[in-house]
Design a protein that fits this description.
With 359 residues, the chain is of the alpha/beta class. It contains 11 helices and 10 strands. Strand 7, helix 5 and strand 8 form a beta-alpha-beta unit. Helix 2 runs parallel beside helix 4 and helix 8 runs parallel beside helix 11. The relative contact order is 0.13.
Length: 359
Amino acid sequence: MDQPATIDPDRRRARGATTNLAGRYDLARTEDHDGWDIPEARPAFDTRVTEEQPRSLITYNRSPDLPFDRSINPYRGCEHGCIYCFARPTHAYLGLSPGLDFETRLIARPGAPDVLRRELGARGYKVATLAIGTNTDPYQPIERDRAITRSCLQVLSEFNHPVGIVTKGALVERDIDILAPMARQGLVRVGITITTLDDDLSRRMEPRVPLPRRRLAAIRRLVDAGIPVCVMVSPVVPGLTDHELETILAEAAAAGADAASWIMLRLPREVSPLWQDWLAEHEPNRAAKIMARLREMHGGRDYDPRWGHRMRGEGEFAELTARRFKSACRRLGLRERTAPLRSDLFARPPMPGDQMSLF
């Protein structure tokens, strides 16, 4: 299948992807051309949101690379538009493009809180930390109006259920009233992702994400409220952001983060051509070096999906990055491993239709 042409930059302002390449399940690709050969202004791409009523919500995994075995996602697609997002290929399962569709054609799941309550209340449910934000950001812009993530947190709070949150969105501050009481019981930890401290690079790589300093401010506010925060330096981009590793960790530690993690840039499936298109437009002088470094870590390929390998890569550069990270964490007092959240407080609240006790 031929690569689609780059879309007019004026139409994709504040978007990450330069194309809307077809997903791997599409049998055909359409051309956006009506035959009219006189140039004309065309509107920018708006964000369109449809709704889905989920029949189930909790997704389980057996990956040894992940510190959790279950997660939920209130949204499909992500308006943040991070060009490097490893979740972009999931839009192909919906018959949509991992390119611009992923960041402009979003799916909200308003029934998620009710489904979550039902699944947690099932008699066979066994509690363990649940992750939010592992695929798409739970605090992307549409959460401000939809508040689906907030409603899910309220359900988790009712059950005293442990939860780990991953986000780039400063909107997480809105939910301090729920998170702070949970934190006092050892039920929550928040991960704030910071990829770069360079505002210009951030705007180009992750166009609708709060700027780095705003995310540092969010760390400070969460910590001041008693909520533990881990800074996630993810992804580390060799030849582009790797030199910032120690500085990001130092700034996050100064803001109050008590733990840190890192992941090397991953380019699964459609992410690789999208990333390389972005490099050609935004960083043409570094593109060859960046891709060469990535391929060195993945046996000559753009990406190696093997467990135990995909998050960090192999070889001299990957090992050097790991040593730098460990050294900086020791110096700054940042933990790489944190104590598990509490599961012993989990309790099933009264459900509609329950028989009340006489005593």
